[in-house]
Structures are given as structure tokens and as C-alpha cells.
Amino acid sequence: YHILRMILKFHIVPDTLFNEYMEFTPIDECANAIVTLLSNTNIDKYVFHIFNQNYISVREFINYTKSIGFETEILTGNRFKSTILELCNELPKDNILKGIVNNLDDQYGLSLHSEIAQNNNFTNHYLNSCHFHWSKIDATYLNKIINHIKKNNYI
After folding, report:
1. Hey, which residues does 126 pair with through a beta bridge?
2. 5, 14, 82, 108: which has the fewest C-beta neighbours closer than 10 Å?
3. Which run of H or E residues covers position 13?
4. Model pTM?
């Protein structure tokens, strides 16, 4: 959410994120996955990791938002740092650092990379055997997210 807000509200993104990936899990599909697993497996023996592994890159997301009128400036580490600090001073109640502080590196670059690799292959194996498949994130879904964010004044 914080990355979306940075792109959609402040129209900036650090170059360190440009080639990273974003995960979107539609809540209705998540609910269907849970119901599918509850209905078709002996859940007391397994731990499931439920998320849509069909990521999109930050680059793809920026290209999509550009196609619908959102221009995003890609900033280098130092420029990103100074822009973030300026925004914090200008908008103290809308602190852009809230929620992204843990992802800032020593140079105030921003990274979504984690040493912990997310993996839901085991879960997807069960879901696939029950004929459940995660959808690809497309323009229609992204449009719904952006409209919801706008409607609720998050940007």
C-alpha cells in the first residue's frame, strides 16, 4: 500500500524499486482459496501460505499508471532521500515515511527485497489439485484498486 501511495499520491519512486515486484492478492480470491482448502484438505496437518504469486513489477505498474495519466518520477537514492525529507516537513500529518521506514536502506534507497523468500508452492499444489488457480493481475484489477484508493481519499 505504501508503495502505491508513493506512486499515486506523490508521483515518486526510488530507482532501487524500479525492477522489484509487487504482490496483489484479490480478497475475493483469497477467500475462495481458503474455502477451497477448508473443503478439500485435512487442514490440521498443514500450514498454508495464501497469496497470489502472479507478481507484477514496479516498472509494469508505473507503465500502467502512466497510461491512465499518472506521471511518476524515478529518483536516485540521494534525490529520493531529499524529496522524502521535504515531504515529511511539508506534510507532517501525512508522513510519507510512516510504513516505509523499515524498508529504507542506509542511503534512503527503498527495497522490497527480503532475505526471507516467500514461497507458496506447497499451498498452490493443493489449490491446483482442487482446480483453483490465481488470476493474473491485469489492467482491470489495477483500475479497481486505483478507483478504490481514490474513492476513499487515500491519495
Report:
1. none
2. 82
3. strand 12-14
4. 0.80
Q: How far apart are CA 3 and CA 24, in angstroms?
A: 12
Residue 57 identity: S
Q: How far is it between the farthest Cα atoms of the chain?
A: 54
DSSP letter for each residue of 5-40:
HHHHTS-EEEGGGTT-EE----HHHHHHHHHHHHHH
Would you put residue 151 in left (φ > 0), alpha (ψ -120 to 50) or beta? alpha
**28 vs 132: CA distance, rounded Å:** 13
Q: Are 37 and 126 in contact (CB under 8 A)?
A: yes
Nearest to 124 by CA among 45, 36, 1, 57: 36
Cell numbers that stand for 89 in this block:
516537513
- For the segment 67-123, what is each residue's pLDDT rounded down to a tens digit? 999 899 999 878 887 888 788 788 877 766 665 655 566 555 666 566 677 789 999
Handedness of CA 78, 21, 27, 104 (dihedral sign): negative
**Cβ–Cβ < 8 Å for 64, 142:** yes
For 8-46, the pLDDT digits (tens) are 888 998 888 888 889 999 999 999 999 999 898 776 777
